[in-house]
Amino acid sequence: xxxxxxxxxxxxxxxxxxxxxxxxxxxxxxxxxxxxxxxxxxxxxxxxxxxxxxxxxxxxxxxxxxxxxxxxxxxxxxxxxxxxxxxxxxxxxxxxxxxx
Length: 100
What we know:
Layout: H1 4-13, E1 19-21, E2 27-29, H2 32-41, H3 52-62, H4 65-70, H5 78-89
Helix pairs in contact: 1-3
């Protein structure tokens, strides 16, 4: 079983977006199977979810320090948080964020 964080972190190392907005503006998370298939097509050393821990270690070791810096986790920018709060106070609907 793939943990969502492990898969998300590995996908991030390949600049792969795992969450997107659909045509109606709803936030959607790509299914794990689809993410793994795309990673395979990008020549990631992964054949199944079982390969993720070792593939993640290998990819991190092969990245330069600057590339590692660009792939660190980040939170929602403060300006987005303020905008979401303002929209909520105004009664506008704010799309829910996925945990991915």
